[in-house]
Amino acid sequence: MATKLKEVDAVMVGMGWTGSIMARELTKAGLTVVGLERGGDIKPSEHFAMPAVRDELRFSRRLELIQDPAMETLTFRHRPSESALPMRRFGSFLPGDGVGGAGNHWGGHTWRYLPTDHATRSHIVQRYGAKAIPADMPIQDWAMSYDELEPYYDKFEKLCGVAGKAGNLRGRKIDGGNVFEGPRQSEFPTPPLEQNLSGLMFAETARELGYHPFPRPSSNCSRPYTNIEGLTLGACQLCGYCDRNGCEANAKAGPHVCVLPRLREDAKFEMRTRSWVSRLVYDKAAKKVTGVVYTDTRSGEEYEQPAGIVVLSAYVFGNVSLLLHSGIGEQYDPATQRGTVGKNYCYQLSRMGVTMFFEDRNFNPFMGAPGTQMVIDDFDADNFDHGSLGFLGGAIITCGHGDGRPISYRPTPAGTPRWGSAWKKATARWYQHALNISLSGSNYANRHNYLDLDPTYKDQLGRPLLRMTYNFVDNDYKLSEYCMSKAVQIAKTMKPTILGEPRLRRGDYDIVPYQSTHNTGGTIQGTDPKSSVVNRYLQAWDAHNLFIMGASTFPQQVAYNPTGPLGAMTYRSRAARLPHRSADQGQRQPHALRGRPGSEGRRRHDRVPEDPQVAGHLRIRTTAADYPPGSYAGSLRPAPISPAGSTARSSRPCRRRKGAGSRSPRRRGRARFRSARAPSARHRRIRPRPTCDSRR
Ligand SMILES: Cc1cc2nc3c(=O)[nH]c(=O)nc-3n(C[C@H](O)[C@H](O)[C@H](O)COP(=O)(O)OP(=O)(O)OC[C@H]3O[C@@H](n4cnc5c(N)ncnc54)[C@H](O)[C@@H]3O)c2cc1C
Ligand code: SF4
């Protein structure tokens, strides 16, 4: 039996980028907010300090900041006819864990999606006709246009101090920026990082060929910058250890640098780490959620946290699995194409490229950042004519050294042995002289790619694992072939000493090598509850006080990285724009969701969505007195370790923290807040369920 805690205004499930931004916005609006995070607390001053932070073995190979698959993982299969097996080690993508989520170890590339990316279906139909979209490709428009999201893209960029150069300023095209981007109201907050030799060589050749190179927009600040929260980011040191690592210079934007310092000092906010949400409490008849149930993974104790608003900010996989575990929405069925939860799971076409070797050039590949790259967008999305090509979508083509780390970066020409002294000699010979042109391609939805619950395998709480059914399809192979031909054209024009074999997207999807953590879909947005899970405010059709954040709401995936739009959408979401509590009375003003569109005094963007299904009424508490500071801690009672058969159904019970029962409830709450990230060995004490090795 879960211990029922005192109700709060809002609860966040997951404290990565989306959970942190939303919590901050809600506390600013006067709400009491609890942030529940499955992982431990991460403190940049401890975890990302020099020299330990520059440890490729620890972070890139042993994946210290990544979700522990022994606790919860996914099962995988290529097609519905196969049985899925659990992923025992994450490879192809690396979901985050702990406060800050994947925002701790992301690279920082920060894009705005193109106006046509926001209206993919209608744009294709308008330009090529309805027949251009194959029947098995359930492409959908986003529920919000680029223009609607533009102010929030701007806000997120100003939170992160994104370094870049505008290519379209209020409709004026600017050479040197991305001329294909939608009109932006303001320049990037910081100028682009200085490019290194490789990016400059690529840009010069691309320009000669008539393309439009520009520096990759990136949240690696090019100079010290004070963001919209009044927090200061440092200047990037071009350290070469960015993605998969934290940043010792506070130059890479992330929740810890950009939002959390403000949130942590706010008495209306409480962070609870090691708090693993197992389900949402759902009142189907009333179409609302009343809270969440979570397990403290240190003690094994289970709690119910009632809340007026629940925000799912648990990344794609957490969002989808929690809906399914809670019976919210209808599971998508690829046979009938009915149901919406799990639908349109998409990924990205990565690990494509061509490597060149220049005998007479020294690139110093160890020095750089994700932002020291030049890009062309000429073959992305629908920036080129697809009329006779037989595929939809496109790829960005990029070049520039950013992370020539000693273990993973060992480029050698074709024919070099893969180990032994000849390999060692070749890596030493070519390390300084290799240059890669990379492609990242869009991945449009296919009816057979989806997420559901696995019938066989379970996580440490005894819940079915999320099952991924996914593979590349013809559209992906053709896209890869075409865009690669353009990359090879550029590579040949650069006249390398040796030109490597192009690495195309061929064969089945492989879950082992890293590709990108740009998983999307599963709780997609739309304007019709029959084909989407959330509306244009990311509010669930099936529970009016449930908001779902992140890339799980993208209807399909484009060639860019996803964090720009998911940050922007979090700001735009309805939950983030509740009216502020009036300072003099400590009372909340009438709730925006209670009114009708056009009510007096309401701002335009606070209007209730037109659909009657979502003109619901959030019941949230109205006075500050309802939630005295420390109310959660005050409500905690020392409880015995869960007995066998309780909800903590690991084969060995989770260990209880030493001395927990002897502390006062309030001190326990504080200790929980202070607790540092526990070593992952603690997790390993909980014996994993039998799994099959996903490595083949
Ligand atoms: C190596 C790497 C490089 C990347 N580089 C880029 C890049 O350059 N540009 C870009 O745009 N994107 C990049 N990404 C992706 C980017 O990190 C994500 O898009 C972004 O962090 C997602 O934010 P989020 O808040 O949706 O999810 P997350 O940051 O993943 O946060 C979700 C949080 O929820 C917690 N959680 C999950 N389930 C539960 C539960 N049941 N109970 C409680 N807590 C739970 C998790 O522990 C996690 O902390 C990269 C990702 C990786 C891994
Ligand atoms: S490359 Fe720059 S932003 Fe990235 S970790 Fe190093 S110093 Fe920080």
What does this molecule look like?
Helix content is 20%, strand content 17%. It is α+β, with helices and mostly antiparallel strands. It has a domain at 3-164 and 216-348 and 442-471 and 508-576: 3-Layer(bba) Sandwich (FAD/NAD(P)-binding domain), CATH 3.50.50.60. Strands 1, 2, 3, 11, 12, 13, 14 and 24 form an 8-stranded mixed β-sheet that branches. A hairpin with a 5-residue loop joins strand 20 (450-458) and strand 21 (464-469). Helix 1 runs parallel beside helix 12 and helix 5 (146-160) crosses helix 12 (563-572). The longest helix has 20 residues, at 474-493. Residues 580-696 have low confidence and may be disordered. Flavin-adenine dinucleotide is lined by residues 13-19, 36-39, 94-98, 101-103, 105-109, 243-244, 276-277, 313-315, 318, 370, 517, 550-551, 561-563, 566.
Helix content: 10-25%
Give the distance, in angstroms, between the N- and C-terminal Cα atoms: 42 Å
User: What name goes with the CATH superfamily of the domain at 3-164 and 216-348 and 442-471 and 508-576?
Assistant: FAD/NAD(P)-binding domain
Structural class: alpha+beta
User: Which regions are unreliable across 5 or more consecutive residues at pLDDT < 50?
Assistant: 580-696
Mean of pLDDT: 86
Ligand names: flavin-adenine dinucleotide, iron/sulfur cluster
Q: Given this structure, which CATH class of the domain at 3-164 and 216-348 and 442-471 and 508-576 is correct? A: Alpha Beta
Return the CATH architecture of the domain at 3-164 and 216-348 and 442-471 and 508-576.
3-Layer(bba) Sandwich
Task: Identify the overall geometry.
Answer: globular
**Number of strand segments:** 26
What's the alpha carbon Rg, rounded to whole Å?
25 Å
